[in-house]
Amino acid sequence: MTSRNIQKIFAAFKKIIELHHTLCYNKVAIDSLMERCLSFLMHEAHELEFPRFKRDLTSEQMLRVIFDYTAKIANERTLDNVLILMANMGREMVVADRCSVWLIDERSQELFTTVAHGVKEIRLPLRSGLVGHAVETGEPIFIDDAYTDTVYRDVLLSGAIAVDKRTGYRTKAMMVVPFRNNDGVIIGAYQAINKMTEAEVFSGKDLEYLTLAASYSGKSIESVMLQNEIEETQREIIFTMGEIGESRSKETGNHVKRVAEYSYVLALGLGMPQEDAELLKMASPMHDIGKVAIPDSVLKKPGKLTDEEYDIMKAHTVIGYNLLKNSNRRILKTAAVVASQHHEKWNGKGYPNGLREEEIHIFGRITAIADVFDALASDRVYKKAWELDRILNLFKEERGQHFDPRVVDAFFEQLPEIVRIRDTYQDQLPEEAM
Predict the structure, then answer these.
(1) Is there a contact between 339 and 331 (Cβ–Cβ < 8 Å)?
(2) What are phi and psi of 93, to 5 degrees?
(3) Quick check: 177 and 210 in contact, CB under 8 A?
(4) What is the DSSP letter of 431?
(5) Contact between 126 and 109 (Cβ < 8 Å)
(6) DSSP single-letter state for residue 351
(7) pTM for the predicted model, two decimal places
(8) DSSP letters along 292-306, please?
């Protein structure tokens, strides 16, 4: 900003001060002052000369960007978040207006991006567009001006230029760089649009920088995708084991699905991080896994249990914990806590350990109310579901007794979503039971 512009801003504030001292301190005067000041500043501001172009990063700035983003990416587990960080890193490194990270969907044979600055998710046939060409050939693409380029004219007319006509955006310089996994297989590409420096075109140095980002991106994305695949496999195993545990009792398959969804909604309602809410959603289906070791004579008894039988039934919490506790996997460790503590009560009168209040892990407190709600709100072969008002009255009575007051409050706040989940995953009971 020039000294002339600084002087104009200083003069504007001086004028505001002068106006301020000429008026009385009343609402009408203050409103009039604000209007006059705003009008004055708008009049002055439109003539200010702000720099149109940015500058390429210095070596020191480039290192700072690389170190900052690689540290963030290394600590991130969620693929979408990794893609966002990578798009931001690429945009800053080459000083582009927009940067997209494209991935190959092998199943659908498509290219897709959930991270394209300024737009929502896009999906394209695998070999379409500039990105498809770069992915197919393995070579980067440079275009100085999308409207004058002749080499990729047909692709640009149906791609970037067509999008510009719909959005009003003006695409000029473009650069696409494919990236590979650890085995050297191309799995996606960076796409940078519009160089924001005075040159307005991408340089050979920009190619080096984006190639560096692409090299790191390919390996990082593969690592996160592999981790996601492992967790997805764990999730499937846990869910199946949870269903097995429930199938031996009087519960239905959808019980574990609903409890998982309820737990997730309640965790978010309590302000827990998304990652923790997801973790609980994955682990909560295992809350009754210990029932696999309870004898059928107790588990499926139609009538009331004796005191001795009830003690046997209560042991499913300890059995479930012992089955899971020795795993080093985060999901299974969480499942062990849930299995052990989902029958503990806020007032200390639960089982197996008589824990009270904050002694009970928050995951156990959440799963407790999710499990009870589903047991009461769902039809079973042996009973009809309670009316919603009856359940809500019970929860009000048990607030601070059976249940953590904060979790009860979150339950009522999230009730519309809770009811939606209940209705979405209803059980199909045999006709003779209806």
Answers:
(1) no
(2) -65, -40
(3) yes
(4) G
(5) yes
(6) S
(7) 0.54
(8) GGS-HHHHT-SSPPP
Torsion, Cα 388 391 397 402, to 10 degrees, reads -140
| 285, burial (CB in 10 Å: exposed 0-12, middle 13-18, buried 19+) | buried
Of 224, 236, 232, 238, which is closest to residue 187 (Cα–Cα)?
224
- Give the list of residues 6+ apart from residue 215 with CB closer than 8 angstroms, or none: 179, 180
**209 C-beta neighbours (distance < 10 Å), count:** 25
User: Which of 111-115, 196-200, 280-284, 324-328 is predicted with the least confidence, judged by mean pLDDT?
Assistant: 111-115
The CATH architecture of the domain made up of 59-216 is 2-Layer Sandwich (3.30)
Whether residue 352 has a cis bond before it, omega within 30° of 0: yes
Q: Which helix (H) or strand (E) holds 95?
A: none
Q: What is the pLDDT of residue 212?
A: 84
Amino acid identity, residue 292? V
What confidence score (pLDDT) does residue 429 get?
55
In 3D space, the residue among 136, 191, 187, 114 whose CA is nearest the CA of residue 159 turns out to be 191
Rounded to an integer, what is the distance from CA 410 to the centroid of its chain? 20
Could you give the strand order of the β-sheet that contains 141-143, starting from the edge strand earlier in sequence? Answer: 122-125, 110-116, 96-105, 186-195, 174-180, 141-143
Q: How far apart are CA 345 and CA 353, in angstroms?
A: 10
Q: Report the C-alpha gap between 172 and 7 in whole angstroms.
A: 36
Number of other residues whose CB lies within 10 A of the CB of residue 393? 12
For the four alpha carbons of 12, 17, 19 and 20, in that order, the dihedral sign comes to positive
- Collapsed DSSP state (helix, strand, coil) of residue 104: strand
Q: How far apart are CA 178 and CA 42, in angstroms?
A: 46
Per-residue tokens: 180: 């590979």
**In this structure, what token pair is assigned to residue 29?**
């005067």
- Could you state, in order of their start, the residue ranges of all structural domains in the chain? 3-45, 59-216, 248-433
CATH fold of 248-433: Hypothetical protein af1432 (1.10.3210)
